[in-house]
Write a structure and sequence with these properties.
Radius of gyration: 21 Å
Structural class: alpha+beta
Number of helices: 18
Largest sheet: 5 strands, mixed
């Protein structure tokens, strides 16, 4: 690996803001944004649209839904078992790495969801056959599966909106989400949804692609941080270390005020030269800016304020960024943005108003105003 670089957190956050199109929105497509972020969380469709809109210099960017309908993005259970919209190549890499952990073979998973590894393997075969050339709603898919012998006891789990039993099928490339049918979720085969789908690569082939994408947006970061983002630390540590080690000089070690991580070597000069521009930025809920490093990263989000961002039932609050750090949250009440700043940050109305104006422009000139919290 390349010689170690030493930088401060101001440089890191300035570089991340630029790399993630926060401080410098792009004229590129929704696919370009999703690629740069290594996926956009799509558990909440409107949050995915906001994540793209605030990073686009186009006042009317193509929405995530349009890209999903065109097959240039695919929606599937990827990082941490949550739904993401991803370009197919990165989705295939992520699914390969997540699937390599084979979490569905662990006794705790089998006890919780009532499916053995053999039954999951049989489900992969049955669902692959059922979905070939078809787009089915959840009810239609479940009915087709339950018509096959041996799956009757999985009816409740298969119908669950959380998709726990379906996730291992996604991680093995047997299904992904299709275009919505009214308010109903649909499923289809990745090869039918995404032109040029080549199946899942070997994990050792997939790892460099996804590690580079992750570190190119959220670095400098450790192998453990990458795995926390990917699989909630389900990959064996020896395997994880080997993936990083085989990348050799493509990665450079970075010391950030005493914390060591890695970035792709191609970005060393950019990171060293990065400077903060001093703007306040407003990002939406479930934004990758915090999901990439994780809410436990105390350099980004002070521990005492974590519960204000990572809320009950897995909700991730909209963010107020100051100097690249999370300094507060906000909510929309009618046509007003109401910020709640953390105790160490006092911003002028002028600074917040400018951030609200940029947010309103990103969302299509929605006429948002600022209400003091």
């Amino acid at each position: 690996m390349g010689a170690m670089l030493s930088v401060g957190w101001d440089q890191v956050f300035a570089w991340r803001l630029g790399r993630q199109f926060v401080s410098a929105p792009t004229a590129g497509s929704v696919d370009d944004i999703a690629t740069r972020l290594a996926g956009v969380q799509a558990q909440v469709a409107s949050a995915a649209d906001i994540a793209v809109a605030v990073r686009s210099s186009d006042s009317r960017p193509t929405g995530v839904g349009d890209a999903l309908a065109a097959g240039t993005l695919m929606k599937t259970w990827a990082m941490r078992g949550t739904l993401h919209a991803m370009v197919p190549e990165q989705a295939a890499a992520a699914l390969s790495l997540i699937g390599s952990a084979r979490t569905w073979e662990k006794p705790s998973w089998q006890k919780t969801f009532g499916a053995t590894p053999e039954q999951v393997a049989a489900l992969v075969e049955v669902v692959s056959g059922v979905l070939a050339g078809q787009v089915l709603t959840r009810d239609e898919l479940v009915a087709a599966v339950l018509a096959e012998p041996g799956f009757a006891h999985l009816g409740e789990q298969l119908r669950s909106g959380w998709g726990a039993v379906l996730k291992p099928l996604a991680w093995q490339g047997a299904l992904c989400h299709g275009p919505a049918r009214g308010t109903k979720v649909t499923f289809t085969a990745p090869a039918d949804h995404a032109p040029g789908w080549k199946g899942l690569p070997d994990p050792d082939v997939a790892a460099p692609l996804l590690i580079s994408a992750y570190l190119g947006a959220y670095g400098p970061a450790t192998p453990a941080a990458f795995d926390a983002w990917l699989s909630r630390n389900s990959v064996r540590k020896t395997v994880l270390r080997a993936w990083f080690a085989t990348m050799g000089d493509a990665l450079t070690e970075v010391d950030v005020d005493g914390r060591t991580g890695w970035i792709p070597s191609e970005f060393v000069d950019d990171l060293a030269a990065a400077t903060l521009e001093g703007h306040v930025h407003l990002l939406g809920p479930f934004d990758q800016y915090v999901l990439g490093p994780g809410t436990a990263d105390t350099a980004l989000l002070p521990a005492e304020h974590r519960s204000k961002v990572s809320r009950t039932a897995g909700w991730i609050s909209p963010l107020v960024l100051v100097d690249g750090r999370i300094a507060g949250t906000w909510e929309q009440v009618d046509d007003q943005v109401v910020p709640t700043m953390f105790d160490a940050h006092k911003l002028s109305k002028r600074e917040l108003s400018a951030a609200v104006k940029r947010l309103a422009e990103a969302l299509g000139g929605s006429g948002l105003g600022l209400r003091a919290g």
